[in-house]
Prior knowledge:
Residues 1-18 form the signal peptide. Helices cover 37% and strands 14% of the residues. It has 12 helices and 16 strands.
Amino acid sequence: MKNLLVFTIAFLCLTSNAQKHPFPANLTFSNGLMAASKSGQDAVNNYNLWKINFVEQCNNGRYRVKFDNPGETVSEGIGYGMLLAVYATDRTLFDGFWQFYKDNVNVNGVMNWKINGCSFGTNGYNGATDAELDVAFALIMADYQWGSTGAINYKSAATTLIAAIKTHEVEANTFVLKPGDQFGGSQITNASYFSPAYYRIFGTFTNDTTFWNAVAAKSYTVINNNLTVNNAAGGLVSDWCQESGAYSPQASGYNNQGRSYGYDAARTPWRIAVDYVWNGNASAKTYAKKASDFVRVNLGGSANIKDGYNQNGTLSGQWHNATFVGAFACAAMAGENQAHLNASYNDLNQLNEPNSYFNQTLKTLYLFLLTGNFYQPQQATLGQEQFDIEKATVTIYPNPSNDIFSVTAPEKSVIAVISPQGKVISQQQAKAEVTEINLAHQAAGLYLIKITNENKSVTKKVLLK
Length: 465
C-alpha cells in the first residue's frame, strides 16, 4: 500500500520567512494516481523555458507575462505567472507580478484584464475572474511559503482580494461565479474559471466556509447541468453557458457562440482535478473520470486529442497541443487507469511549443500538478489570529505508516495515542507545529490520535502496518 500524504489546512499563525517547500517539492497526493514516469525535473525545465520566453522585467521591480501579442499583458497571464512563481519559490518574480497587478486595478480592486506592455496603458477594462482566483490563491501560497512579515503582507493582500471577488465576482444570492466584475452570473458563466479547490481554502483563510463551500457546490451544479442539458459526451462542457446549463444568448460574440469545448472549456478538467487530488471530492472525481474516459475510450488515447470538440464528442479542432492534452492528463489522475495516465503524461511532456503563450504556460502548470508541485498549503492563516480546533482539520501523515506518523497541530496541544484496546499508550505536548509519533514497537492495527487544545479536541484514526 502506498504512503499517503495528506495536505490539509490547519489554522496556524505563520511568522517565519523561510520557505516551506523547495522546488521541486515532488509531493505525493493522498487521492488519485500519479504517472510512473513523473519527474520534478520536467516541471523545472518547463518553468525555466516559460520564464525565458514569456517574462519581461519592467521598471521599479515590476514583471509582466507576454501575451499572444507580446506587446500586451493580460491579467490571466499575471495569475498564471504568480502561481508558477510561488511554487517555484521565485519570490522576486512573484513580488514583481503582484506589483504589476496592483498598478493596474480598477475601482473594484481587480486588475483590468488587458494592459499595453509595461506602459500600464489599459487596452481592456475591468476584471476577468479566473485571474483574480489564481492571484488570490497564489497570495495565500506566498503567505504559506514565506510568511507576511516582509515588504509585502501577502496575508492582508489575499484577504482583501478575496473580499473583492466575493463582492463583485460572485452573483449575489445564487453563488454563481461571474466571469468578470462587470458582467455575468446566472445568464452567462464560464466553467473553466470554476476553482472549487481554491474556494475551500478561501473559506478557511477568511473564516467564511459556508459562503465559499456554497460557491464550490454551485460550480458542480452548473457543470452537471451543462453536461445533462446538452447531452454531452464525457466531460465536454461548453465554453460558456447559463446557470441552467443551457447555452447563453449573451455568448454570441465568442467562438461558436460559446457552445463548443474550445480553448476556454479545455482548462476545466485541470481545475476540477485539483479538487480531487487535494481534497478527494466525489463530484470532482466523477467529472474528471468522465473527461479521462472520453479520451481513453472514445478517442482511443491521448495521442488522438485535438484542440476542439462539439459537446456531442464530434471533432471541431485540428491541432494536437498542450492546452488540451495536459488538462485531460490531469483528469487521468482520477481516471483509475494507470497505463492511460502514464501515456497521457508522456504525451504532454514531449510536446514542444515553447513560443506559444497559452500552450507553454498551461503545459507548465499542468506538469506542476502532475509531478506533485502544485499542492495546497499545509497551513493557512485565518484573517483572525485564533485557532479553533473544532473547526480545523489536523494533518496526520503518512497514513498508513510502518512506524512514524507526523502530526500537524498547534503548539502546546496535547497529543495522545490510544491503542486498539482503548489504552492510552503515550501522551505528549506539541513543542512545534509538527510532532512525530513513533509506533515502531507497537503491534500493527488501528490506533487513535487525540489532539486536545484549550479544552477542545479532535480524534483521528491511523493505521499502523
